[in-house]
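Structure in, sequence out. Go:
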């Protein structure tokens, strides 16, 4: 689909639910602000073609688990549109390494911890959604006030209303602030501390979200996620 002159890569299954968002004034304001900041010499991540990649790799129909991040990585070559993920060949950041550690402890498996590309999860129905979709180089949360949360809140609430038996991972205070967008009577919400090294030892480690999610899927006759 096209938004003005910019090609937006998004799986067509989302269009019935959120296509109208792209013509709203807040989205036009985001686009204008991104153009303005780039004209001022700001380097913005991820590259344009990857901004909506979470919605491109994971269709609306296939979504069964949502991992809510805050904003993209702010260092070169790290951000590619999926929360917590990095492209092939890029060293996994500390939060992602802690996610891998918890998977290993939770599921009693060994992971290749040098591979931080989570596209394999996205293709299984894991929506890796940051609530802010862009960031400036070296300046975390620099686009938090642009209006992206209007769009991503719409995605979360739309999934909650229109699907059943989803799992939501809410890691840290920012993700947990989205809990009111989710119908807890219809979906499984798994909350904990954030996997950041600053907080992982305060409740993320030992929270066992991966086995809890797969147990929920098994109980509801939904294929589990291969986290390996």
């Amino acid at each position: 689909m096209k938004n003005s002159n910019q090609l937006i890569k998004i799986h067509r299954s989302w269009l019935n639910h959120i296509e109208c968002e792209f013509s709203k004034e807040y989205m036009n304001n985001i686009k204008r602000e991104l153009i303005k900041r780039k004209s001022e010499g700001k380097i913005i991540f991820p590259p344009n073609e990857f901004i909506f990649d979470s919605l491109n790799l994971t269709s609306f129909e296939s979504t069964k688990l949502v991992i809510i991040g805050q904003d993209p990585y702010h260092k070169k070559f790290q951000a590619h549109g999926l929360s917590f993920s990095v492209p092939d060949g890029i060293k996994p950041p500390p939060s992602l390494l802690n996610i891998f550690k918890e998977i290993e402890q939770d599921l009693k498996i060994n992971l290749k911890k040098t591979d931080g590309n989570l596209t394999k999860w996205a293709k299984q129905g894991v929506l890796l959604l940051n609530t802010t979709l862009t960031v400036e180089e070296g300046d975390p949360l620099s686009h938090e006030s642009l209006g992206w949360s209007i769009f991503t809140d719409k995605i979360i609430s739309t999934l909650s209303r229109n699907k059943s038996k989803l799992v939501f991972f809410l890691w840290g205070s920012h993700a947990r602030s989205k809990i009111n967008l989710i119908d807890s009577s219809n979906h499984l919400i798994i909350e904990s501390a954030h996997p950041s090294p600053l907080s992982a030892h305060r409740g993320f480690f030992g929270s066992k979200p991966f086995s809890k999610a797969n147990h929920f899927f098994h109980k509801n006759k939904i294929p589990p996620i291969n986290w390996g």
